[in-house]
């Protein structure tokens, strides 16, 4: 069987779930003997982590022009395509897999007809993956028109992709709803984590001391970009009365984003600034999880949240919402607690229940870790991708 060379293309190298998928998958592919390169349109802190694994990273210039500046937009698209063609030639790429590209997915799909004719796979990370108004901060008035154009392009250009990778069953449903009846070209491959990163002998007490906490403090942690999807405001509202009754309870908010200012204002208005800690983007998430007591993810929608899988791999009891992806990973009452999204009272009750019953929390954490070991390992993720690549390559090339 030919050794396939893979190019993973992602919008940016910031800290985030999809970016962690690319890092973990690339490492797994390389360990399986599949040379892999990562390409992005924006540099970020994840670049160093990927390069430390010996995986090449190529950063192309960011997009500057909207389609409103049509001549410049077209020229820029041609330049990006040429840059991608050069990468395909430089690394002798056989497979291109995309992540979070949106309209650039359509550009990448045209590479299928180049001289080297690589396989093209679009990865969909989110149930709600269609273009949303908040993704157009400068041109919200164009949202309706752009959504219609995107929908049309997805349906027309989907035939140019060799296949789609959905990270959960619900995401597969979303792909069919947005793109059309392409079920025969969708592979469902769940995200995976490298258990080695989350079962290390991290000194949890040293991490706590560095953050200014004692062994007696109770740390509930949430990891995610500070945006509407992640539901942080419901967490803050839910925990406010709990902090009044349990002053040792602290919430670690790991991540950054557009809602940081409004969330900090919410915390000040509630008078709980000493117990809510905005840590920003961190490169030591595994250590922070190891130092925590409980993980909370109050998302309004998801694909298959890497942060949740990582927390469970760490052996933490988890509280998540009944949304796509999360309810696939968490077995209600066995490997975690699931509550309705956007509802404060059930979230507060679940947090209070684990405060009151540390033994139940411990057992949930153990079950969560077993769940990830059995179903969401990085090795399984890489192997399933390789099976897909090789099957499609053999189908097209007859060997």
Task: Produce the secondary structure layout.
Elements: E1 6-10, H1 17-31, E2 36-40, H2 46-52, E3 57-59, H3 70-90, E4 95-99, H4 104-109, E5 119-124, H5 143-157, E6 163-166, H6 169-179, E7 186-188, H7 195-198, H8 204-211, E8 218-223, H9 232-245, E9 249-254, H10 260-270, E10 276-280, H11 285-290, E11 294-297, H12 306-313, E12 318-321, H13 326-329, E13 337-339, H14 344-356, H15 358-375, H16 378-397
Parallel strand pairs: 1-2, 1-4, 2-3, 4-5, 5-6, 6-7, 8-9, 8-11, 9-10, 11-12, 12-13
What key attributes describe this structure?
399 residues, alpha/beta, Rossmann fold, seven-stranded parallel β-sheet, six-stranded parallel β-sheet, 16 helices, 13 strands, 45% helix
pLDDT < 50 stretches:
none
Shape: globular
Please give the number of β-strands. Answer: 13
Question: Which structural class matches the secondary elements?
Answer: alpha/beta
Rg of Cα set? 22 Å
CATH level-4 homologous superfamily of the largest domain? Glycogen Phosphorylase B
Helix share, percent = 40-55%
Task: Please give the CATH architecture of the largest domain.
Answer: 3-Layer(aba) Sandwich
- Major β-sheet annotation: 7 strands, parallel
> What's the number of helices?
16
């Amino acid at each position: 069987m030919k050794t396939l060379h893979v190019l993973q293309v992602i919008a940016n190298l910031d800290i985030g779930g999809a970016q962690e998928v690319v890092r973990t998958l690339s490492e797994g592919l390389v360990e399986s003997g599949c040379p892999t390169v990562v390409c992005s349109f924006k540099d970020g802190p994840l670049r160093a982590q990927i390069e430390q694994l010996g995986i090449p990273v190529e950063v192309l210039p960011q997009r500057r022009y909207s389609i409103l500046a049509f001549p410049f937009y077209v020229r820029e698209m041609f330049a990006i395509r040429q840059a991608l063609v050069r990468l395909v030639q430089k690394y002798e790429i056989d497979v291109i897999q995309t992540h979070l590209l949106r309209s650039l997915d359509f550009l990448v799909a045209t590479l299928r007809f180049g001289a080297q004719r690589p396989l093209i796979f679009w990865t969909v990370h989110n149930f709600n993956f269609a273009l949303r108004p908040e993704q157009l901060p400068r041109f919200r008035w164009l949202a309706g028109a752009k959504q219609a154009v995107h929908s049309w392009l997805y349906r027309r250009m989907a035939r140019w992709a060799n296949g789609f990778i959905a990270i959960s069953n619900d995401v597969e449903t979303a792909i069919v709803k947005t793109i059309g009846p392409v079920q025969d070209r969708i592979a469902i491959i769940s995200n995976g984590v490298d258990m080695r990163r989350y079962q290390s002998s991290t000194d949890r007490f040293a991490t706590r001391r560095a953050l200014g906490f004692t062994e007696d403090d109770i740390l509930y942690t949430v990891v995610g970009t500070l945006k509407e999807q992640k539901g942080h405001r419901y967490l803050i509202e839910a925990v406010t009365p709990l902090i009044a009754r349990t002053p040792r309870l602290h919430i670690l908010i790991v991540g950054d984003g557009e809602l940081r200012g409004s969330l900090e204002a919410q915390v000040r208005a509630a008078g709980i600034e000493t117990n809510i800690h905005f840590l920003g983007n961190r490169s030591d998430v595994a250590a922070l999880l190891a130092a925590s007591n409980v993980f909370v993810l109050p998302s309004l929608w998801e694909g298959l949240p890497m942060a949740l899988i990582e927390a469970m791999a760490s052996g933490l009891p988890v509280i998540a919402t009944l949304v796509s992806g999360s309810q696939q990973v968490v077995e209600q009452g066995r490997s975690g607690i699931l509550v309705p999204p956007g509802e404060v009272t059930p979230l507060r009750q679940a947090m209070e229940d684990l405060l009151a019953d540390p033994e139940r929390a411990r057992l949930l954490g153990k079950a969560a870790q077993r769940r990830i070991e059995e179903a969401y390992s990085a090795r399984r993720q890489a192997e399933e991708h390789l099976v897909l690549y090789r099957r499609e390559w053999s189908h097209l090339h007859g060997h």
